[in-house]
Design a protein that fits this description.
Elements: H1 2-9, H2 17-33, H3 44-66, H4 68-72, H5 77-81, H6 86-95, H7 122-125, H8 131-142, H9 144-168, H10 176-187, H11 200-250
Amino acid sequence: MRNRLYEIIEVSKDGDKASTVYDITMMIAIIVSIIPLAFKNPHPVFTYIDIITVILFIADYVFRLITADYKLKKGAKSFVEYPFTPMAIIDLLSILPGISILSDGFKLLRLFRIFRTFRVFRVFKAFRYSKSIMIIVKVIRNSKDALLAVCTLAIGYILVSALVIFNVEADSFETFFDAIYWATVSLTTVGYGDIYPVTTTGRVITMISSLFGIAIVALPAGIITAGYMEAIIDEHKKDETDDDLEADNHE
C-alpha cells in the first residue's frame, strides 16, 4: 500500500490516472491557496480556503513522510532525513500559515501570525507536480557547475564595474552601494535611469558595461537551453525504452 501511495504522490506517469488526478488536485489547491495574497482586506471565504488547503497540504506532507524510504532509499534513516530535505521544508512552511487560523481564539498562538508570510512558499510546492518544471530543476542541478561559474563571473564583473565607475564618477555616486546598484542594472541591461554617469568617460564605461552585460546574461540562458534539450531527448529515449519493455512483457 505504501508503494502504491508513493507512485501516486510522485510526478504523474503516463497511464496512471490516480497519480494524474492527485497532481491536478494539489496544483489546484496550491493556486487557490495563494489567491488571498492578492487581496489586502480579509474575507470570510479566505478562512475556509485556508482550512481546506492546509488540510490537503498536511495530508500530502504525511503521505510523503511515510513513504520517504521509497524516495530516499536509505531505509529507516529516510524518515529522519526527509523532514530536512528542501522540498519537505517548503511543504512545512506552506502548512505553518494554517496555524494562524487559531490565533483569534488562542492568545498564545498569535505569535504564529508571522507564518502568514510563508504562504508564498506554496508556489514552490507546484514544482513537484509539474513534469516540465522538474525537468528544468534537473537541468539546473546537472548544470550547477557551469551556472556557478557564470554567477561568479557576473558578481566579479559587477564589483569591478562598480569600482571603476565609483572612482570615475565620484559626484554621481554617493556610496559604493549606489555603484553596485548601477553596475547590476547595467549588467542586466535594464537601466532604470535613476542613477547614471554624466561625464564622457563614465558614459563610455557604461556602454562597455552594457555590451559585456548582454554576453554574461545570455550565458545562463544558453546553458539551461542546451541542458533542457538534452533532458527532453533523454526523456523521449526513456519513454521509448519503457514502451519496448512493456511490449516485450505483453509478448
